[in-house]
């Protein structure tokens, strides 16, 4: 897949897309769109404090760590974005209101204000298209070698949002295709460890299932988006507990579907 050249990223920046375990043989393809809080050199700090740049507005804390543990447990390929969603949210299509935010929760983002259409397009060319294009390529590679693909995206969310505590601990999200989500919710029912809910704290109406809708729905691939409350995965011990729970949940649900 070819993309237009862009000079938005400089020689000081890495490729926006990271791929780990590309030769993994398991059916799950893991995607972490909000893995990093790193900013490309060209945008500086976007006018934000270090506290803001370390907060959830910049990334999904703990999501990459959990994704890596899942990749190891499930023998899964993992694709993640190396730059912050503050520059471009790769789980939103170009032109969507949430793709480049000039306000996120209580934070103004000065470096995103009054961008021209050309500036927005440059960010999409540099970050969004290579990222989503690499996912598409991986799915084709897997199909060509006869490997099943189950698309699973991993995110985290804050325990308090606009001053309101969130009771949900793990969200199992889906768009029109709920096959895998249904099985996972059944398997999690009464688990005694985590409060697991459907399409919480977000759902498809919030635009969060873009990656699933783009790649999985047209091809009828099994798919799910997992949201984990980030206070549960702010330590290595917590990450291992949650990853172990999710590994069991995914493995059992996929076995049940294949029966």
Architecture (CATH level 2) name: 3-Layer(aba) Sandwich
In total, how many beta strands? 11
Give the overall average pLDDT: 95
Total count of domains: 1
| Helical residue percent band | 25-40%
CATH topology: Aminopeptidase
Q: What general form does the structure show?
A: globular
Q: Write down the Rg.
A: 18 Å
Describe this structure in words.
The chain is an alpha/beta fold. The chain has a single domain (17-258), classed as Zn-dependent exopeptidases (Aminopeptidase, 3-Layer(aba) Sandwich), CATH 3.40.630. It has six helices and eleven strands. A seven-stranded mixed β-sheet has the order 1-3-2-6-11-9-10, sandwiched between helices. A two-stranded antiparallel sheet has the order 4-5. The protein has a two-stranded antiparallel ribbon with strand order 7-8. A hairpin with a 2-residue loop joins β4 and β5. Mean pLDDT is 95; it is low at 1-5.
Provide the descriptors you would attach to this structure in a database record.
disordered N terminus, 17% strand, 34% helix, alpha/beta, 7-stranded mixed β-sheet, single chain, two-stranded antiparallel sheet, Aminopeptidase, 259 residues
In short:
This protein is about 35% helix and about 15% strand. It has helices at about 50-55, 65-75, 115-145, 180-190, 210-220, 235-259, and strands at about 15-20, 30, 75-80, 105, 105-110, 150-155, 160, 165, 170-175, 195-200, 225-230.
Task: Present the secondary structure layout.
Blueprint: E1 17-20, E2 28-32, H1 50-54, H2 63-74, E3 77-81, E4 103-104, E5 107-108, H3 117-144, E6 150-157, E7 160-161, E8 164-165, E9 170-173, H4 179-188, E10 196-198, H5 210-219, E11 223-229, H6 236-258
Parallel strand pairs: 2-3, 2-6, 6-11, 9-10
Antiparallel strand pairs: 1-3, 4-5, 7-8, 9-11
């Amino acid at each position: 897949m070819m993309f237009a050249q862009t000079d938005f990223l400089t020689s000081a920046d890495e490729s926006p897309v990271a791929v780990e375990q590309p030769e993994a043989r398991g059916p799950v393809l893991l995607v972490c769109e909000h893995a990093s809080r790193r900013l490309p050199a060209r945008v500086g700090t976007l006018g934000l404090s270090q506290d803001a740049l370390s907060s959830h507005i910049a990334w999904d804390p703990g999501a990459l760590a959990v994704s890596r543990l899942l990749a190891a447990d499930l023998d899964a390929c993992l694709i993640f974005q190396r730059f912050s969603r503050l520059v471009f949210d790769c789980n939103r299509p170009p032109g969507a209101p949430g793709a480049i935010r000039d306000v996120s929760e209580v934070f103004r983002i000065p470096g995103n204000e009054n961008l021209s259409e050309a500036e927005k397009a440059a960010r999409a060319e540099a970050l969004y298209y290579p990222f989503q294009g690499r996912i598409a390529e991986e799915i084709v590679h897997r199909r060509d070698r006869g490997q099943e693909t189950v698309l699973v995206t991993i995110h985290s969310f804050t325990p308090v949002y606009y001053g309101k505590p969130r009771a949900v601990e793990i969200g199992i999200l889906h768009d029109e295709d709920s096959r895998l989500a249904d099985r996972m919710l059944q398997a999690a029912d009464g688990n005694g460890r985590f409060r697991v809910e459907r399409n919480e704290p977000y759902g498809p109406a919030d635009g969060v299932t873009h990656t699933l809708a783009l790649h999985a729905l047209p091809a009828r691939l099994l798919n799910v988006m997992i949201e984990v409350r980030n206070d549960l995965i702010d330590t290595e011990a917590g990450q291992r507990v949650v990853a172990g729970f999710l590994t069991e949940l995914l493995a059992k649900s996929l076995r049940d579907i294949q029966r």
